[in-house]
Design goal:
eleven-stranded mixed beta sheet; about 10% helix; globular
């Protein structure tokens, strides 16, 4: 019975923690929060098991999609636009609240928990990786 429960829990966690891979690049924990206006942000963890690469662009079916980084400057939180983001060799890069994130702007529909937002990540060396951001409720 213990083995059956362990198998069941492993299956459930793998469904909840979908990952996407392309060569040495793996993306996990891709999520977004429900929208409260005409924009939202997307987050994920990117693991690179190979040589350095560059995330050149993120595209999705919205009027504007951009990579930003939240920074605290002189006591004020600001966002800096990035045309590309370095992906370290044998390293990890986190797009998370308060740091790097993908901005989806010009949204016409509200996103609610359980929605899946399709996007493509374009890497300089690895190529294009299609992923989905799962909309989850804010903690």
């Amino acid at each position: 019975m213990k083995h059956l429960i362990a198998v069941f829990l492993t299956m459930c966690s793998s469904v909840l923690a979908e990952s996407y891979s392309l060569g040495d690049i793996t993306v996990t924990e891709s999520f977004s929060y429900p929208t409260n206006g005409r924009s939202s942000a997307g987050y994920f963890t990117l693991t690179n098991d190979g040589p350095a690469d560059v995330l050149m662009d993120v595209t999705a079916d919205f009027p504007r999609v951009m990579m930003h980084q939240s920074l605290m400057q002189d006591g004020v939180m600001t966002m800096k636009h990035h045309m590309m983001v370095e992906v370290p060799a044998q390293g990890e890069l986190e797009f998370a609240p308060g740091g790097y994130h993908v901005m989806f702007m010009g949204l016409s529909d509200r996103w609610t928990g359980g929605d899946e937002i399709e996007a493509s990540l374009q890497f300089k060396n690895a190529g294009t990786l299609d992923i989905k951001f799962t909309v989850t409720e804010r903690p």
